[in-house]
User: Fold this.
Amino acid sequence: MTTPLVQLIGVTKTLRGQEQPRPILTGVDLTLHSGESVAILGRSGSGKSTLLSLIGLFDRPDGGQYLLDGQDITRISDGKAAALRSAQFGFVFQRFFLLKHLTAAQNVAMALVNGQGWLPRRQRREKVLAALDQVGIAHLAKHRPARLSGGEQQRVAIARALVREPRIILADEPTGALDTETGNLVVDVLRATTERGCALVLVTHDPDHAARMGRVLRLRDGVLHPETVPALSGAPTGPVGALPDRGGGLTHVPRHARPAENEEVRA
Amino acid sequence: MIRLSGRLRSAVIIGLQGIRARKTRTLLSMISLFLGVLSVTVVQGASQMAQRAALADIELIQGIDGTLVMSVMGTPEAAKATLRSLEDRTDAVAVTDFRAIIGEPNVRPVNEGGSPFDEQWGGWGWSGGVRIECDPTGYCYEVIDEQYLQTPVGAAIELRVVGLSGDIRQFRPFRLVTGEWLDFSTDPSYSPGLVLNREAAKGFERYRVPAEMRIMGAAKNPTPRILGVVEDGNPLPTAYVRLDEMLNWVDVDAPADPYYGGINLEVYTQPTATETLQILRANLAAVGVGEEQLYVRVIDSRKQVEQMMLILRLVFFGMAGLVLLIGVAGILNVTLATVGERVEEFALRRAVGTPRLLLAGIVLAETMITGLFTAAAAIGFAALVFQVAGPILAEIHYSLGAGPFPWEAALAGVIAGLIAGLLGGLIPAVRAARIPIASVMRA
Assistant:
């Protein structure tokens, strides 16, 4: 039996600062292994994002235990949490949070220029192009967000999450701002990351997207419950050139679609 | 160290990206800071120039910093020993004063006592109105020469004549105004060559006087030649002459000065002239002048000027500091507003692993780089003004228009820019570091 990548044991969290403290998580148990994908469903306000912020070390639980690779990190310091977020986690949000004054490549490089180690510009550029290539938009490396569609912007955000080769991807309603077809493409890209051993936690309201994960859990009354989701209602993603197939394998991006070898991509 | 370097580089890269993204705001910050940094640069530049001017004047009169000045007072033997010691030495120069009247004989000079030509300080006593008489017991006293007082004022100029055993300009950097300086490489002439200072030149320009020089203590009156004019910082009419040319007319053994008697020498030496000093001390000891009779001082003009300038500089820097503070308030205001608008960006950066310290560093990098840009603009502007105003300032004082833009002013501008950036960015930096990471989840 391998050590789980993430293990939450009886985790609780109460929101304070309001008139009445409001318990959000009352005893969450969750085990996540490398290469596993989990969807978390739940009503708005049920605590899905709070749970994600605890897993992603944005916040600390009030009670219970959080083990990462078997190490107890429940009360980890701010500095160590930042280092772990940089090395182990990749985040994808509903809003893409791309900085409009930066190009796609520079937005992706943001995760590399974060004070956690230093990479020379050349290596940075290689990694950024590889990440953009992975999500099929290497040819858009020099474009600013304003010139990208919603789906392309979300793929830049995913490339940003992937660029440090994280072990866990946390995606908080990544398709919420996208149409169904583009949403499907984004989920495909995310699912593909599990093929290389990355664990994926997807918070979503969409049962179709949830159904394409390995496991589906529903957060209800502050506790996670296993959920059975009906078979997929939609067709698999359409034939979009540079996107993964249903099997999760990443489609090769044609060479001509990438920036020329000698073309400068600032990262 | 590598970690720090990585964070520093990250802060600078992200800071520059931020500046590029918000050019108008950066420009606003720079405008608010410009006057403050400019005032610091100008105050520092002006004080450097004032110091340079004051130092130039003091160096002319007292000597360059580090020069050793030894006073040899005493017997004619001491004077002879000193002059013998300095023969063929270029690192030491002996100096002595003579009083002289150039012009008609048997008249009182137009500037009795050697006073400046536009002022009358009196001093007929020095010019011959008082003579010293000694009784057989050796007691000396002043006697007023009534006959002299009856003498009319005529075409004669009284001045101080400074005899030099070598080129004094290595210690006192006189500036040649016209003509030429003394040539020590030739044989001494019986017609002493004089180099006048500006005040003496003014007298010779204003009054036509015969070329006969009466030197106190000399038996005969030589005919001088005027070689040139120098700026020596001295307001009194003075002439410089080769000491050996003067000694053709004045006997070292005879009292040249009715008050002090004998030739009193001052020896200017370079701080490195240890061998010359050793020889001089040994020769003086041989004629009975002990170490206790030698007074040696080291010229420290800079310290003297700095003390003079300190209060002035403090007052002006205080005023410049106030202007800079207003600039700091401006950059603080703009940066606070910017941080308020960038909550999501900072939260996102924390989400991808950026430590709080680096977030603060990014804001500080932006404000400090803005401060540096402002400093560059202010220094450039000040240097331009300096270039334009240089010729005008040179008319006020020769040293003001000379030389390059003071580097100390540029340094002060850079420091002021950095400090203003640091102060203006400190509170916004703390605020940025405190932005909760959850802001990105709630958005």
